[in-house]
Design goal:
Elements (H helix, E strand, L loop, with lengths): L2 H9 L9 E6 L6 H11 L5 E3 L13 H13 L4 E3 L2 E2 L4 E2 L3 E3 L4 E5 L14 E5 L3 H12 L4 H17 L8 E6 L2 E6 L11 E4 L7
Parallel strand pairs: 1-7, 1-8, 2-7, 8-9
Antiparallel strand pairs: 3-6, 4-5, 9-10, 10-11
InterPro entries: P-loop_NTPase (IPR027417)
Protein name: Uridine kinase
Length: about 210
Amino acid sequence: MHLHTLADRLRRLPPSCGPVRLVGVDGHAGSGKTTFAERLAGALDDAPVLHLDDIATHEELFGWTGRLLGEVVEPLGRGEGAHYRPYDWRLRDFGPARALRPAPVVLVEGVGAGRRAVRPHLAGLLWMEMPHEDAWARGRLRDGSAQSDFWAGWVPAERRHFAEDPSKPFADLLVRQCSDGYEVLPGPAETSLRTLSVTDRDGPASVC
């Protein structure tokens, strides 16, 4: 089945945050969450995507829950547009406010998207299935030597986060990147999404 099948299934989920179906895309840093979320958003007719890199900061790698709930989740829950100030990782400061419309499906992408405080507001949770060491190696390669100090602090912080507040056990679906697309498999959680298996290919259908 095509990635659009997954999009159709997400559209049919009950709203979870006011009129919005909030869908989390979680996984280790470097696992491909951003790219997958953008492709899924395209299949959802350009659904809005909130990147948690815009909510986190150098000082609050994982201490952003209050800001996410207050600036994004609560307004969406009232059926209103949300406004948040994305963090500039180069300038180490927040930028101008950015709007997030209350679309039928809104994707929340980033490490911690399925954390305990956010899950009650999610219609579904997808987990990028990649071993943490492989994901971190990809992330380091992507960011280059200029970000080596950041990664030295990030890895232990992420370890602590998932040890204290794991997301994968609550994932409805596991997303595995293949050479020619994605394979979406049932996750550990017992939900209506759990039985769905989806593949998305750029070329003819094939077995991953």
